[in-house]
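Record type: monomer structure entry
Structure origin: computed from sequence
Chain ID: A
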Amino acid sequence: MKGLEVATKDSSFYANFRFRMQNRMGFYTNGGDDLGISEWDARVRRLRLRVDGYVLSPKIGYSIQLAFTRSDQDFDNTGIANIVRDAVVFYHFTDKFYIAFGQNKLPGNRQRVNSSGQLQFVERSIVNGIFTVDRDFGLKAYYNNTIADMPYRFKAAVTTGEGRSVNGTDNGLAYTGRVEILPFGLFKNDGDYSEGDLEREETLKLAIGGGYSYNVKTNRTGGQLGKELYAQRDMGTAIFDLIFKYSGWAYESEFLKRRSVNPLTFNAAGDVRYVYAGWGNNNQISYLFKNNIETAFRYSIVQPEHQTTLYENRKEVVEAGLSKYFRNHRIKAQFNLNYNTEEGNWNIHSTNNYWGALFQVELGI
């Protein structure tokens, strides 16, 4: 059973309650030959309560998710404790088509749509951190079907473009669309949106996705995320990703590219805030042993383009992960070691390069 279930006898109401927490400790070095600690990362990274269910009829569903830690509330960017992550109502016309109204994740890159509780590394990649389109408020539509025994999905959204928990919005909206195909059939237990092959797929499984999000007159540096810009900007984000699983092996890759005609904005004092125009690519591969210990390796690169290169450097991260799954992703312990570089300089003596190590325990129902 997943979570705690409550239902009425007449089946007119159903709720499933779940919680999870991620407790983390780690550090980053100063850089170069100086291996002293520059920063500790010791905190409750996530503490969330989630309720899913339906009212009146299974056709009318809902999902609510609340966050209770500062790092999970976008406080540093907005100055507001955005406790509400998801608050959305679904209407299922058929088993193959439904719509959603409210605030939840956009149909963006696969790693972002993955729950943070389904990750095989302690945190998502730097590519996701810079280019993801995240959550937004608006109307979404989802359709799935098969053709010649091959499942496919269409997803679309028209949203405010300002992210979650805003007090109001401007006269520009965001338009997002995504297509997915699964040429070798469905993954076990929706494993195309869960990292690592914990299901040990008996036959090869592959999912390929692509999409585009165009945000008109956004007020934030990352569209739905980031600090407020000094002037409105349009931005477009292209997304391509895939995931492969077979017999304990898993591989996934994402490519994201963002464009903005004029990414720089300035205030009266000459301070600058900008849209990160550029591209990023993330690749990770893993193998799950029969004792439920997993080894994983990840390589990520982000490359600024055009005017953004005045303020940002090319960044690359290589990361090794070791995880022990006690109850799939719901109860696990993870250790990651990463090496961070800039401008393609892999010299370990460079002061711009540094090490990081993170240990995390996740517990949830």
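Annotation 1: The chain has three helices and 19 strands.
Annotation 2: The longest strand covers residues 34-55.
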